Amino acid sequence: MGYSRRPSSGAGAGLVRRRDFLKRSLLMGAAASSSGALLSLSASHEAAQGQSDTPVRGGTFVAVGHQEVPTLSPGKAVGNVPLFVIYQLYDALIEVDENFEVQPALAESWEISDDGLTYTFKLREGVLFHDGEELTSEDVKYTYEFYGDPESGSTISGQAADIESIDTPDPYTVVFTLSQPNATFLRLTANNYYIVPKHYHEEVGEEVFETQPIGTGAFKLKEWRAAEFTELEAFDDYFRGRPNINILRQDIVPEASVRAIAMETGQADTMTWPPLIEDNLRFASDTENFTTFVSASLSVNHFPLNNNHPILSDKRVRQAMMYAFDRPRQIEDVQQGAATLATSNLSPSLMQWFEPLVTTYEYDPAKARELLEEAGWTIGSDGIREKDGQKLTFTCTTITGDQARRPQAEILQQQLLEVGIDMQLSEAPITAIQTGLRNNTIDASLYNWNYGGTNGDPDAPTTLSSDGRSN
Asked: End of a domain among 180, 211, 242?
């Protein structure tokens, strides 16, 4: 569920003609990455937001997000709040609109060979970076080679794994040759690699670039404080025309209730992450100041688990947790019915790919206890199971200040305890959680993510493939 304050003349009026950034930001519906198995909860409901029909030049458009923006690098930013900024600073070769149709961006046209191994992109001429230098094919080649290298630390490096070579026969032509056909190359790879200027990035390095970025986007950086706000200003020479908004600002407001108040009082024009479910439902009816849309999102609420953990590595333990997890109660009590029970990594809103006839886990505590006994975990004197002197315990780390999902973890904690599993709860900033999951230093977490369906493609190489950086 999403909504926006109806813009008045000046402030918040006249959104830039570009990938509808607020709509996409909400549809992405993600805040962090996964590690190992998924303990599925539900597919949450979100929506796109509206915009003014009468553009007016000027003003400041304010969004509120729930987590910090730890990097401004297009190869490392993940989650709604950071990506809200990234989409404005950079452009990719192509983009996918709200109807999942592929549209030109930096590339005005492209051709795909009959064998699916060669992609030839013709770049627009006269596209400028924020420092006034013109975009060329060398910038594209440099971007793909840098962020396609796993050593760069990029979260999207796996999407370039099939690129065998990149040729630049002239300043406005880029030819990608793949080692094997890849049906996701156009919608995922060409759409997710945001182009950086070779001359600048090569000079300052990635560490500096993360804090002082230059792109071709509709907005350029004005000021950035990772845990406080990011402020962007319109780029006068944007190749699609200058944005009507002068300033685009995103404030970091961890408390969901405070974000809702900011919307009601006019301190914010939209949210890049929804508030508490009761506020979502309260805003569901149009009022004088708000237009509301309700739709099923692509994201799945889940608990990512570390499969390298000595306890969680046992499939029987993970299966027992699923049987001990009363997910319908979660939907009814915590999300007040505004969700659909998940049966796989794909949202049921992806009707063309969604398959309901898969293995499901009904709420069955007796089955959970049976699996744990089979795995050798017996009840101790304190009610916690143990094996070989080790307690059946692990820690779930939730995002600091996440009032919306913390209750979900608390209910699961109670339900797991009923079958002898001790799930401790802790909190940490999202950046620490993402780093810990990728480095196998965090046992489990809780958030929602898109595991397939993004940009109209069911594949999820970044999160579900063996070499996916966010797996």
From this structure: 211
The domain that holds 170 is classified in CATH as 3.90.76.10
Domain count of the chain?
Answer: 2
> Phi and psi dihedrals of 384, rounded to 5?
-95, 135
Residues 6+ apart with CB under 8 A from 342: 40, 41, 42, 43, 300, 301, 302, 327
Q: What is the pLDDT of residues 128-165, one digit of tens each?
A: 999 999 999 999 999 999 999 999 989 889 889 999 99
- Tell me the HSE value of 152 on the side-chain side, using a 13 A CA sphere: 25
Question: What is the domain range of residue 319?
Answer: 296-464
pTM: 0.73
**Residues 304, 425 share a domain:** yes
Out of 164, 183, 211, a domain closes at 211
Q: Hey, how many other C-beta atoms are within 10 angstroms of the C-beta on 7?
A: 22
Three-state secondary structure call for residue 104: strand
310 and 196 belong to one structural domain: no
Side by side, the strands of the sheet bearing 385-387 are 378-379, 385-387, 390-391
The C-alpha atoms of residue 273 and residue 83 are separated, in whole angstroms, by 12
Helix spans in 325-364 (H)? 327-333
